Amino acid sequence: MRQRSSRVGWYALLLIPFVGLLLPVYLTSEPPLWGFPFFYWYQFAWLFVSAGLTWIVYRATGEGRP
Description:
about 70 residues
């Protein structure tokens, strides 16, 4: 049972991108980054953050190991 409860904490990391994209912080066009409005680069940045967090959770929980 200990192993299952420790996995829940790792899976909670997957909620970070979900919450980050629900926040209304990107309802502005400032500050631009390389000419892109904040709305676009904020969402694009979450793509990499989400992929990184998914990889971390995958490695930490041992999913896919025999």
